[in-house]
Amino acid sequence: MNTVKTLCFVIAALSSYAALACRLYQVRRDWRDSAYRTLLVTLLFQCLTFTMGAVAMGSESFLGVGNLAILVMHVSAVAFCVSAQIILLRWVVDGDRAVRRTRWWVITGIALTVLLTALFFVADGPGRPASDFNTGSGQPLVLTYLLAFIVSQAVPCVTIFRQCGPYARMTDNASLRQALRLLSVAVVVLFLYCLARTVNILTAAAGIDIGVWQIAASLFSAAGIVVLSLSLTMSSWWPLVAALLKWVRDYRSYRALYPLWRDLYEASPGIALEPPGGSVLDIDYRLHRRVVEIRDGWRDLRPYIDRSVNGIGTAAPGASEEMRQAFVEAAQIRQALRAKRLGVIPDDNKDVGDFEDRDSDNFPAEVAWLTKVASAYRKVGKAG
Prior knowledge:
Layout: H1 2-24, H2 27-30, H3 34-58, E1 61-62, E2 65-66, H4 68-92, H5 95-122, H6 132-135, H7 140-170, H8 174-205, H9 216-232, H10 234-256, H11 258-267, H12 283-301, H13 321-342, H14 363-383
Antiparallel strand pairs: 1-2
Domain DUF6545: 246-378
Protein name: DUF6545 domain-containing protein
InterPro entries: DUF6545, MAB_1171c-like
């Protein structure tokens, strides 16, 4: 069990240091921003908290004082929670109200630090076994110390959670909105840590052994800190993730359009601005070219498109009206390709118009529509 607890501290510490390194990368650009400086302080306390946790698991003394690492860990956790509350205020509240609330949280943090330090030494913290600070061992002063620490962690979790929802709805900044939502998830998990830790303390005081369930507190703590680290650094890594997700979406669309584009290109090679192939690193450009070339190839087919052709029967039962229309377009394209190869122009041809007046100025909608047509095109080909 101690191995799992140590591993949880190490995971929390590594995620904290990764978050700090991520934010330090922006120090030259953002140092003058007070919210950024507060965030750095928050991450420093976060790193110190879990570093001391790992130290406490590996040694009974720190700087020659028994259990000092535990006290430093708890005091750092208090400072970390207070500074996290302050950074939230700096993100979403302006003016005198933010200053007043910041002052209140700083005073509260100092008072809690003094209280925990006094209780630690009055309870003879340096002379006790380290295990006493996991369970309290039924000692009133140690129990008071531990419960005071849990309250110092639980209250900020509640206040931050209550603020994240309204603030996320108020802001127009998409990145900040996502960060606040992720922060609300983090504080819920950390509140579960507080509950699990309280259960551990009270059951031990009552002489109840809950066995392996004691490890739940460490698991909630590590998970909550990982999510919290992600939320506090979201503005740094989210644009990269968003760009990667967009690349993946564009690449999937690019590949999905290939069978339709290939047949149109074979029928009208002049639609391609460049020879086929090349790198897909510039997928945005290539997807635009593929959409344009599909449109150009379709226009070349207009004299061969028979209006009477209907591929709705190939659509799945219960398909949406848009999907049914995609099957009509796909069937007409496949028929027109055959007609062009044979040189047969139908009497009722579609020599004007476009894909049923689809808005080609809205590129994402255009890609989505052509992807449906390409999907229907493959199914019509299999059915034929």
